[in-house]
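Q: Structure tokens for this one, please.
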Amino acid sequence: MGMGSDMLIRKPSDIRSSEITPKSTYLGRREFLQAAGLTAAAAATGAFDVDLDAQQRQKLTIVGRMVTTTDTISPYDAITTYNNYYEFGSDKADPAKHAAEFKPTPWSVTVEGLCNKPGTYTLEDILKPHAIEERVYRLRCVEAWSMVIPWDGFPLGDLLKRFEPKAEAKFVEFTTVNRPTEMAGQRIRFPKPLILWPYKEGLRMDEAMHPLAIIAVGLYGETLPVQDGAPLRLVVPWKYGFKSIKAIVKIRFVDKQPRTSWMEEAPTWYGFYANVNPNVDHPEWTQSRERRLGEIRQRPTLPFNGYAEQVASLYAGMDLRRYF
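A: Here is the predicted structure, written as tokens:
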């Protein structure tokens, strides 16, 4: 399947040093907040007020680079301090605020269901055979905000093939870790839990095997911060951000479409597919426009988040208003 005219795949030797954004050029927090029009909200919530401990981050060995957009990459501070991650709380600042409570290592992933190689795999088992590359992807969230993120990871399909899915496996289900002692949002019980834990998501097998879908283990060339889903998260760039499940501890191959967490919580708001579709509004706001964090003006939302040329064929003949 062609990757489209806006996608470049290059080896490290092909990349000029001038194309790699140095951290010294990231927008400062004050300038970023002003540009995004979020100063008042940040002051009220404490957003962007967390100094990330550099000692907790490690450099990654990056073997290649894929650029899928010419849009400006979002600042590191924005990517790591403005997050949807209900396991740590419902406010965008909560994940960074509570990240230090969480221990991303040691880690293991249980693989089960319709495959020939089920079992429990350590993080080292998962990572060892895979070469990590940087992929610059757009991220679009249902609240009509977006980012451009230099993820570091490897194709999800390459990982799933290792477990030898059976022919009957039509879907793959992912489950997030459930650790209330380390995840503040999971400790909330009154008036009710934020959602029913653990968080679950899923993809059709052909979606999961698409080369754009990746397992991310880092960003900006460093290990993935806890608030962004460490140590393993899914990234599916043509879908709304909540499909890209974080802190994965279970992968299950199934023959029927799994019930995902947001389908259980709000079935009329969030469907299984969650493809970015500017023509299908959220019940409480339009999805036709978005605002990139770091920018003031809104921009039109692109079908499939701008990846239609690569992925639209996966949904040929489907009513994308019904299967939202």
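A few notes: The chain has nine helices and 14 strands. Confidence is low (pLDDT under 50) at residues 1-51.
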